[in-house]
Amino acid sequence: MSYLKTTVAALCLSLPMGMGIVATSASAEGVVHLFHRSAADPMRLPRMAMWQHCSERLDIEIIENFSPPKQYEVQLPVQLSSSTPPDIYAYWAGGRSQFQAATGKIRALNDIWDEIKDNYPAGVQATSTEPDGNVYTIPTTFQPNVFWYNKRVFAEHDLELPQTWDEFTAVAAKLKAAGVTPFLLGSKSGWEPLLWFDYMVLRVAGSEFRNGLMAGTESYLDPRVIEAMEMWKELLEAGYFNDRTSSLGWQEMATKFVNGEGAMELMGTWTVGNFIRAGLEPGEDFDVFDFPPITEGIELAVEGAVEGWAASGAGENTENALAMLKCVSEREPQELFAAQAQRMAANKDVPIDIYEPASFQPTIERFHDMLDAPFHQNLELATHPGVTEVAKRELPRFLAYPDQYMKVLELLEGRRNDVFGDS
């Protein structure tokens, strides 16, 4: 029997993209209020299939409330401060969770984490554990950010995959000389260039420094950050990126990639659906490679996103919420979600053969192998939202005016001091 009621919070009724009401409830032993960011059925339905599995198994009714993704972070504080805050809500490990902890709107989940952490590979476990030692989210998906490259373009120009920074820049130079844009990059949503910044810092300075930078204990004016920005500036000034980055978002980047208008792009795994729907064959028309090393001896950490679910701990249904969160950590519900959404499950026991097409499964295996290295939440999720706000405004500006890189770093450092103090 389905125990699901979809509702609209009164405070959200004015949203232009409404949240439909479905009055399909049944009596159950308990209830949880769940809030998440989904407006379109292709993502909402797989998420709710996962939750309904646990709802029926535990005899707990779900009262669902959802917001369009672009409005979710505006609506979430309103929901958490309401008289009926959600018991469970979609969230991310990293700086977002630490910020929520400071507001008292998130419950540490250490008491259930010890029981379920072995459902996850080491990389996901590490990413889910915050600097304060607490776990605030139960992971359900992970998405590494990697270089996607057009194999036909590489073959046409007799190019090998770069294994070093020098090889990487040599490939870019050869492509540009042949009239091909080496790197596709947009900044329409603000977050796209953050992936480049993050990896440049990781490859120049390493995981420990980068973790400190995200936690506010290291400086954006550190010589290693300056070096990373200067190296990126050289790539921009060499003309290795497309023009008019501000008019491109990740989907427009994918379109250009499909059309052969660029050879490579740095992006998360969510982009692959664009390639496959356009008729590109994984492993034949496109493939992936890691961001190349820069500083000798620096471990090749992976940057990406681990998404999950948090508990507010604010209502009468906390015990039900904890039971549901333990349940969604397991293979069966995550497999339901992954098979329907075609997003990689965080649970390590979900089989690879549920992902389609079969030709993409070897790449999925490689993504899982990446979890053996340090896996980091991307900058947008890893640091304080106040720093993210500046990064999403200033790094896109840097793409247009690379000579102003020090101004960008000074603004980031100023915001770091504002939100973390002079650490």
Describe this structure in words.
This protein is of the alpha/beta class and 423 residues long. It has helices at residues 41-58, 69-80, 95-103, 110-116, 122-128, 151-156, 165-177, 192-205, 207-215, 223-237, 250-258, 272-277, 318-328, 331-341, 361-369, 379-382, 385-400, 405-420, and strands at residues 4-7, 30-37, 60-67, 88-92, 138-150, 183-184, 264-268, 286-289, 302-311, 375-377. Residues 7-27 have low confidence and may be disordered. Helices cover 45% and strands 15% of the residues. The protein starts with a strand and ends with a helix. Strand 2 (30-37), helix 1 (41-58) and strand 3 form a beta-alpha-beta unit. Strands 1, 2, 3, 4, 5, 6, 7, 8, 9 and 10 form a ten-stranded mixed sheet that branches.
